[in-house]
Each structure stands twice: as structure tokens, then as C-alpha cells.
Amino acid sequence: MKNAAAFLLLAVAGTSPAFAQETPATGAKALTQIRAAVLRVDRESLPPISRLDLPPADLGFAGARLAIEDNDTTGKFMGQDFEALEVTATPDTAKAEMDKILAEKIPFVVVLADDATTLALSDQVGDRALVLNARARGDNLRGKDCRVNTLHIAPSYAMLTDGLAQFLMWKRWPNWFLVTGSHPEDQALGAAYQRAATKFGAKIVESRVYEDTGGARRTDTGYVQVQKQMPVFTQDAKAYDVMVTADEAGIFAAYLPYQTWDPRPVTGSAGLVPQSWDASFEAYGGMQFQNRFEKLAKRPMRDEDYQSWLALRMIGEAATRTQSADPAALKAFMLSDKFEIAGFKGQKLTLRDWDHQLRQPILLTSGKIVASVSPQDEYLHQSSQLDTLGIDRPETECKF
């Protein structure tokens, strides 16, 4: 990958640096250079409960690198050259790093950040670039806080919770014990599960909040504390079929499987988890896709990698189909009814015009295998079955 040091860039031929054209060798066809930026904003946080979940240094970037390889494979036949650089930031430095990107007149920026930072960066960008959200899941970003300059590649909370809810109702597990963390992002996810329960006819028989009191989570006797505390925390719950956990902060949910007072399955943030991607997925060419990524990155693919890959592949697909690198033309095509992208999920993926969310199936994974894929067959829709997941057109609060 060319210049893989600070960010992923995508643009067109023209007079500015972002629209540079390569000087061809004698007899060679000039290549239109298509550039984009990938900006990952890392926050300080406690280490994950399991050391197996420690984030790799190239999280998100590795998926972007694979996308550039894929784009160039087709692009070289179309006279297009895709280039990638990578940049990391903290919440304190994100604005300055975005200013550097905009100073280069880069028209596409893939953002890997939390909800608040993604929203702030979208406002900072304005009409100077197109933001592709590859991490933030907040429903507000697709609703009252939606921005016309932002496409959402990462699935929303509503899509993830609807995907799990459909499966639980198919299993005839309508009675849920909902356990939500005390952090704001936990509460937002918990609200999405409450909405999903209402939407699909489930009943939340009891809700509890797990308060994060701080302190060490990894000690020599940690499992001893968990074995005593979690059964007590879940004791005396009203009769339920399944526990649903909302723990975006990663504080408690992983401790719950096999530790609940009642012998019930755990889902949500642990146990059976709704995700955009999983390293065990093999269907629809997934095995070959995973193998290519693992050869490149020397590790399994994660959600952020998949979402970054998908964001840049969308730009590449639009450039190939339109035979253009004009940012306005590419955005218009992606939002049109002619656009679709293959995502190794068995269905074409398209963008919703009412909130700029990418339609996509949701994988339900147990950590070792994919147990199911939503939408479930029983849930139909008048235009796209994928619109049974998340906020549909009549429900949207988004006003561009």
C-alpha cells in the first residue's frame, strides 16, 4: 500500500493536490488518483475483561489496506489508482488531525470514533468532505442528530438489537431479563433493546442496572469474586427466558455466562452477540475473504476492520461503476437506487436515503461460530427485508 503512514485518502484528477494525476510512463495510460482519509480516534479506557479482546495496533487500518488492494485490482483496468494513508488521534487531537485532512482537500474521510466525536467531526467537516462512519453506533446519529455529509457504514444500535430480537422471537424466547450498564453508551444500547422488544412483541419482565464502581477487573482471584457476585446480582429475578445485556463499556457482560442465578442463556453484549462481522463466518465467500485478510494482517478480522473495508470498497465500487472520481458524482451514485455493494453476507448492501445508513444483515455469533444471520425469514418488508432491521422510513427522525 502506498504511503501507508498517516491516513486513507480518496480523490480525483484536477488542479488541487487531492486531484493529482500521475505522470504516465511512455505509452502508458494516465491514472486518475483516487484518495481518501481514514481517521481513527482512540480513547483511553480500561483494558477489556479478556486479554483476547485487546485491540490490535492496526485495528480498522488493516481492513482499509485490504480495501485499497481490492480497489486497485479493478481500478488499474479503469485507469484509476487508489491510495491510502492512515492517521490516529485522541479526542483532544481529533479536530487538529481533521483540519490537516481538510487542508489537503481530501473529499472522503472514513472515521473510526465514538458517537460524540463522530458528530463533532461531521460538523467540523461541513460540505468540504464526505464522512463515512465506520464505528459509531448511536441511533441519534441516524435520527435527530443526522448530518447530510455523513454515511453510516457501521450498523446502528437499532439494527443490532432488532437482529437479536428477531432471533429470540423465532426461538420462542419472548420474556427478557434486561441488564444494562451505568455508562451513557450502555443506556443508549439498553433503550434500543427496549424499542426492539416493543417492535417484535417481546416482554422485558425485569430490568436491572449494573453500576460501574471502578476498581481492578483482572486479579489473581478475579474468577472467585465473579463466581460469588454475579449469581447474587441476578438472584430473585422474575421468571424469564433469556438474559439480554447492554454493556457497550465492556464492564460486566462477559462475566455473566454460566454465572446467572437461574440457568438461562445470556445474549447481547456477551454470549450470543449481534455483530456486523465475525472471524468465524465462512458463507458467501467469507472464508476466502477472511483468508486474504489474515494473510495481510496476520490476525482475524474484527468489526472495525470490516466496516473500514466496506467504506472504502463502497467508494471504489462507485468510482468503477461511474468511471468517475468526482466526489459529488460518487456520493450521488452511492445514494441512488443503482448502487449496491457485495459484502460477503449473501445480499446486496445499499444505502437508505432517509438517514444514510447502510443496509446489511446482522450476524449473531457465539464467539466460535455464527449461530444465525438476521433478518430472519419470517420477518418481511414491502421494499427490502433488510429494512426490518433498524429505523425504517416512517419512523425516522432524521431531517436533512
Written description of the protein model:
There is one protein chain. The strands form four sheets. The chain has a five-stranded parallel β-sheet, sandwiched between helices. The protein folds into two domains: 220 residues, 3-Layer(aba) Sandwich (Rossmann fold); 118 residues, Response regulator (Rossmann fold, 3-Layer(aba) Sandwich), CATH 3.40.50. It is globular and about 70 Å long. It is α/β, with parallel strands linked by helices. The protein is built from nine helices and 14 strands. The N terminus is likely disordered.
Q: Can you lay out the helices and strands and say which pair or pack?
A:
Layout lengths: L31 E10 L19 H18 L1 E10 L4 H10 L4 E5 L2 H11 L4 E4 L16 E3 L4 H14 L4 E7 L2 H17 L2 E8 L11 H12 L8 E5 L19 E3 L4 E3 L10 H12 L5 H20 L4 H8 L6 E2 L5 E2 L12 E4 L4 E5 L26
Parallel strand pairs: 1-2, 1-3, 3-4, 4-5, 6-7, 6-8, 8-9
Antiparallel strand pairs: 10-13, 11-12, 13-14
Helix pairs in contact: 1-7, 1-8, 2-3, 4-5, 8-9
GO biological process, one term: amino acid transport
Protein name: Leucine-binding protein domain-containing protein
Family: Belongs to the leucine-binding protein family.
